[in-house]
């Protein structure tokens, strides 16, 4: 199964900074608030500000050559977005959209570069973050080429459950409920293919779904599917074609 996914490193950039450095960086910027669905950073834009997220979740995505949307990552409190354009001063490589209400601090590219130049530890953290994103990109390319929709969806659901899940009754409720079109965009599949795979998982009592809500009921089976192992005996009988 993939080792890097939608989420960043276990410890975010801001939380990995010494408290004094974190306060100094945030003091360099201006607080901003974003409503659900609002674009915070737009792909190919020439702006260079960095957003330090203080609360809420955002979605990082790109437009493919076929005009479809591919979700690359989820970024939450403590993380920074827009840092690549600030560092290399080239157009934005992705769009960042608020998943829910988001609070952030906007730091200009010039001030962010000066902060990195005077704080070597912060520079090291940013380089580590960029390296992790590059590795994640390599993993995703291999996944798209070699894994089925069902396997990729299972891996995403496992990741969401582990990083943003809440135990409730006999299952794990995903605290970041993504609609089907976003789940599809997060695994490079069509909405129809994701709907078929979710139906299969529901029929096998692996997950339960409602409006923008997914509850993982059988984590061991979901993990097995994500790892490409032998599926539940009933899964092979009902697996829809092309999934």
Commentary on this structure:
- Helices cover 44% and strands 23% of the residues.
- With 243 residues, it is an alpha+beta fold.
- It has a 4-stranded antiparallel β-sheet with strand order 1-8-3-6.
- Helix 6 packs across helix 7.
- It is globular and about 55 Å long.
Topology:
Blueprint (H helix, E strand, L loop, with lengths): L12 H4 L2 H9 L2 E5 L4 E3 L8 E6 L2 E6 L5 E7 L4 E2 L1 H6 L6 E4 L3 E6 L1 H10 L1 H27 L2 H16 E4 L2 E4 L5 H8 L3 H13 L3 E4 L2 E4 L2 H8 L6 H6 L5
Antiparallel strand pairs: 1-8, 2-7, 3-6, 3-8, 4-5, 4-7, 9-10, 10-12, 11-12
Helix pairs in contact: 4-5, 6-7, 6-9, 7-8
List keywords for this structure.
12 strands; alpha+beta; 4-stranded antiparallel sheet; single chain; disordered C terminus; 243 residues
Largest pleated sheet:
4 strands, antiparallel
Q: Based on DSSP secondary structure assignment, what is the total number of beta strands?
A: 12
Strand order of the largest sheet: 1-8-3-6
Order of helices and strands: HHEEEEEEHEEHHHEEHHEEHH
Structural class based on helices, strands and sheet pairing: alpha+beta
- Tell me the overall shape: globular
Could you provide a short overview of the structure?
The protein is α+β, with helices and mostly antiparallel strands.
